[in-house]
Structure formats: C-alpha cells, structure tokens
Amino acid sequence: MVSAVSTDVSAAQRSTAAESLIEIRDVSYSVGGRSIFSGLNLSIPRGRITALMGPSGTGKTTLLRLITGQIKPTSGTILFDGINVSSLKTRDLFALRRRMGMLFQNGALLTDMSVFENVAFPLREHTDLPECLIRNIVLTKLQAVGLRGAAQLMPAELSGGMNRRVALARTMATDPEVLIYDEPFTGLDPISMGMIVRLVRHMNSALGITSIVVSHDVKELSELSDTSYIIAGGKVAASGELKNLKGHQSDIVNQFVNGLPDGPVPFHYPAADYYQQLLGSEA
Amino acid sequence: MKLLRELTDNAGDFAATVGGVTLFLGRVLGQVPRALMRPSLVIDQIHNAGALSLVIIMTCGLFVGAVLGLQGYDLLLRFGSEDALGTAAALALIKELGPVITALLFAGRAGTALASEIGLMRATDQLTAMEMMAVDPIRRVIATRFLGGLIAMPLLTIIFIAIGIFGVQVVGVQLMGVDSASFWSQMRSSVDFDDIFEGLLKGCVFGFACSLIAVYEGYTAEPTAEGVGRATTRTVVISAVLTLMLDYMLTALLL
Q1: How confident is the model at residue B33 (pLDDT cuts 50, 70, 90)?
Q2: Cβ separation A97–B129 shorter than 8 A
Q3: How far apart are CA B47 and CA B148, in angstroms?
Q4: Residue B127 to chain A, least CA–CA distance (Å)
Q5: What is the ipTM of this complex?
Q6: pTM for this one?
Q7: Residues in chain A within 8 Å Cβ distance of B124
Q8: Residue among B125, B134, B136 minimizing CB distance to A98
Q9: pLDDT at B252 over 90
Q10: Looking at chain A, which residue has its C-alpha nearest residue B140?
Q11: For B186, phi and psi rounded to 5 degrees?
Q12: Over the stretch A56-113, which tens digit does the pLDDT of each residue have?
C-alpha cells in the first residue's frame, strides 16, 4: 500500500529522501489558537541517531506525533522516505507505521498481557508466524534487553526501567527501520539509563536503524547522538553535534545546553506583581 | 436572550454528540467482521462482560423474583386469584423486569468496567501505542468488547428471568402455599413465543445500547483520572436513561 502511495512522490523528493529518512519542510502547527510550530524545517538523516531537544512545552512530543501521523500539520510537509505522511489514508498510514517503532515515555505496555505477550503482540497482529518462531523471536528480543527471565511477569510487577526495556523489546520485535524514543531516560536510575543508552547505540550500529531521541538529558545525548536539533519558539534554534553547541551564540541554546536556571526561558511563569499579590486577596 | 442562547448551545452539543456516536458506531460496525475472525478475543470479552456479571445477575434475579412473589401474591389474593401468580410473575419478568433490570445491572457492572478499562488504556497511551504498532484499536479493543457485551446481555437476561421465576416459585409456592401445579400450568399456558421474543429483543437492544455507550464513553474519555471517572459515571447514567426510554418505545411498538 505504501509503495502505491510512494509512486506519487516526485523524483526530487526521492533524492532528498535517500540522504535523509525524514524531512520536515516549513511545518506550522497550531492548537486552540496557540502556535506550537511556525515554519519548522529539519531533516533526520538515515541510519544515524538524531536528538530532538528543547525546553519543556516547546512541542517535542508534538513533533513526534506529527512525524508519526498521529496529528496533521496546519501547513507544510512531513516526508517519511519521500512519502507525505499527512496526506496518507488510514490504511496507508498503518502500512507506513509498520516501518516505525515508538518507545513511549511510560512504556505504554498493554496491562492485561504478560511481558511475553506484550512483545509477541505486534508479531501476532501482523504475521502468520508459527508459535514456535514467535516464541524464539520474543525470547531473543527479551534477551537483548536483559529481561528474558521476566517473560511471565505482568506489567504491574515491573519497575519503571524494566517497563521501558520491555517496551523497547516490543518495539524491536518487528525490526522497524526507524525507532523513535520519547523521553527514554526520564525517571530511570543510572544503571537502567546506561542500559538504554547502550541498547540505542547498539541497535543503531549493529542494525543500521535510524533513531530519533527526544530528551532533556544533555549529558547522555551528547554521548549518544550523531546530530541534534534544539527547538525553541516553534523553530529550530540550533542544530549540529551537541558538544559543539555549548558555546552557541543564541542565548536560549546556551541556557538550555548549559542548564542555566534563568534566561530567555524564564524561571517564573508569567504572573502579577509578587508583592501586590501577597498584599491582595486574590489567589 | 441568554436562555435562548444556552438552549441553542445545548441543542448544538447534543446534535454533535449524536453525530459523534453515529460515526463511532459506523467505525465499530465496519470492524465487526474482522473482529469476528478472531473468535477467541470475542469469547474473552463475553467472559469479561457476561461470566463475571453472573453472580450479581443471579443474586439480583433471585431477590427480584422473591419480592415479585410476595407482592404478586398479596395483590392477587385481594382478587382471589393467587393461582395466577405464576403467569403474572413470568410475564412481568420476561417482558419487562428481566431485560430492564439486567440492562441496569449490566451498565453498572460490565459497562463501567468497559468504560474505565478503555479510558485508562487511552490515558496510559496503550491505544496510541497500538496505533503506532499499526493495529487499529477500534478493531482490536473496541469492536471485540462491543461484541462481547452485545452477546452477553441477552444471555444474562435469560439467566435473570430463569432465576427470577425460581425466586417467585420459592416464595409463592414454598412459602405462601400457592398450588404448584396451578403455578406452572397457568404459566405454561399463558406465556407464548411472542412474550419470549419481546423479552429477548429488549435484551438485545439494551445490550447494543449499553455496550455502545460504554465503549464510546471509554474511547472518548479525557485521558486523565478525572476524565475516566466522568466517563464511567456518564456510562451508568446515560445507559440507565436510554434503557428506560428504549423500553417504553419497544413496549409501545410491540403491544
């Protein structure tokens, strides 16, 4: 189905797509009258690890939702391997998503299924593989994340880090071309975080998977990512290798990369005068 | 003027909701054939909606039957026709009380469970995760649960009626001394196929309505704890009101 759609794509788009797997061109997105992105441009190179960073509320998760076709941009184009994601019908979009895998911040495991069944879920839904083969694939993926021994546990019995590792095994089960990680390090202890970093790096180098990582964790991402985009004010504020962005001329990039408490992104949410409010009666 | 504007707004909201439910129903019905091709998933949901509601249905059926036996006996005794207790109670249970009370109990037990389960799946990104795995949650989650409820409801209605008649018999025949032969023979001669058809039809229609409301409210729930709670409450309230409205319409139609 996707190939049928892709025939509509121009040759020029295809040549760009050969270098970059995902192209975001002049994308604007507004919700409830509030502009999230205005004229956003960026490209995700094929087979590399790309970090999407930015202050909280800047729309990083929204960008992932745009890339995966969960929402449509107000204007602009999002190309996945030359295919305009926002113009796809549901069936074609689902066919495209079989080439993607997404790791959610909370794991999003199906709570009525065991760890084994969670990892087997996409295989059972999309393939007619015999049960013995599904079993072997699931055990292989669980072995890769170090949780083969937890195959029969239920999601409620897992810690946060284990939950995310199972979700990663499930995402890997169908061997997608691109893996999208939404805040994969949030709330993890250093051991689990190191394990996830190693897995992301390993899958990228061993399998050539394109990875997109959304995170605030500058230290981890500077070791992990090949290229980074810092998004602020609805646009790309800076891009390149993260270690080279530390002395960036933009104040907002500097504040973010160096973790400064105050700057263009204020510490305080806009509010009335502090003393007047204290002396007044309004909350 | 303000009142008129509020009325217009409310009418607009109501029309939008009806439109939303209709479109949702269309999507669900469109996925029903594919859901039926995975019978094990539907059977699981019949178990969740039906088998897990059995205790409450049987207990309530027994006590409704027992009360009906007491009240019916007291009423019929005034006219000297207590032998007609079997007929009166059976017709009341088959045509009205069985389907209606089963639907109200179904909405309270299985409907709320469905709405909160689906709402929590939405709130914890499980439905989004399915969409990202190219699995349509309408087919995998909603259509199977809708079918489970739709099939379970008439079965629960039959069980409720059977237990209810047993309750009437225990009170009427065993405690109050109504003649057993009269009780059963009058019931057999008075209750015909049309009465049973009416009861089953109501069971099916209420099952359709209650299951649809539950899955719709769960699917469209705001992904917060408060939103899931609100969806659960709305499921019970809307299902109860709709059941009683549909009951009147069906009764008027079938009389």
Answers
A1: very high
A2: no
A3: 8
A4: 8
A5: 0.81
A6: 0.84
A7: 106, 108, 111
A8: B134
A9: yes
A10: A125
A11: -65, -40
A12: 878 888 999 999 999 999 999 999 988 999 888 888 999 999 999 999 888 899 999 9
Domain extent listing, chain A: 2-99+211-279
- Check CB contact under 8 Å for B132 and A94: no
Domain boundaries, chain B: 39-254
Which residues on chain A place their C-beta less than 8 Å from a C-beta of chain B? 68, 70, 90, 94-95, 97-98, 100-102, 104-106, 108-111, 121-122, 125-126, 167, 170, 174
Q: Which residues of chain A have pLDDT under 50?
A: 1-17
Which residue of B lies nearest to A179 if distances are taken between CA atoms? B132
Give residue for tokens 């006590």.
Answer: B63
- pLDDT at position A2 is 42
Fold annotation for A2-99+211-279: Rossmann fold (3.40.50)
Q: Which of A90, A104, A126 faces B129 most closely, judged by CB atoms?
A: A104
Q: What integer pLDDT is reported at residue B17 of this predicted model? A: 86
